Amino acid sequence: MARTTVFFRWHGSDDMTEVTGEGSAELQDDGTIEIEFTYHDGDDVILKAVREPTSSTAC
User: Fold this and answer.
1) C-beta separation of 33 from 45 below 8 A
2) Which region, left, alpha or beta, applies to residue 49 given φ > 0 means left and ψ of -120 to 50 means alpha?
3) Torsion-angle region of residue 41: left (phi > 0), alpha (psi -120 to 50) or beta?
4) Which of 12, 36, 38, 56 is most exposed, with minimal Cβ within 10 Å?
5) Taking CA 58 as the corner, what is the angle to CA 57 and CA 59, rounded to the nearest 5 degrees?
6) Cα torsion for 28, 26, 4, 51, to the nearest 10°?
7) pLDDT number for residue 51
8) Using an 8 Å Cβ cutoff, are 30 and 46 in contact?
9) pLDDT band at 1, cuts 50/70/90?
10) How far apart are the C-alpha atoms of 47 and 12, rounded to whole Å?
11) 46 within 8 A of 35, measured Cβ to Cβ
12) What are residue 35's DSSP bridge partners?
């Protein structure tokens, strides 16, 4: 059985203030990916990504 979820820790900055957190990315049954970012002592943010069809014509 293939894994469909990965977990991670992250760090960055928000208005020049250091922020850290954890998150996960999960492949959904419909082919989209849902990514959740959890800020330590803060909010949760959920992103959903959809793959757009691409052209197979060589440029």
Assistant:
1) no
2) beta
3) left
4) 56
5) 115
6) 60
7) 82
8) no
9) low
10) 17
11) yes
12) 25, 47
Q: Which amino acid is at 27?
A: L
Write the pLDDT tens digit of every residue in 14-35: 888 899 999 999 999 888 999 9
What is the per-residue DSSP string for 28-48? -TTS-EEEEEEETTS-EEEEE
Say if residue 54's pLDDT is above 80: no
**Token pair for 30:** 């419909």
Dist CA 28 CA 48 (whole Å):
10
Note the pTM of the prediction, 2 decimals: 0.68
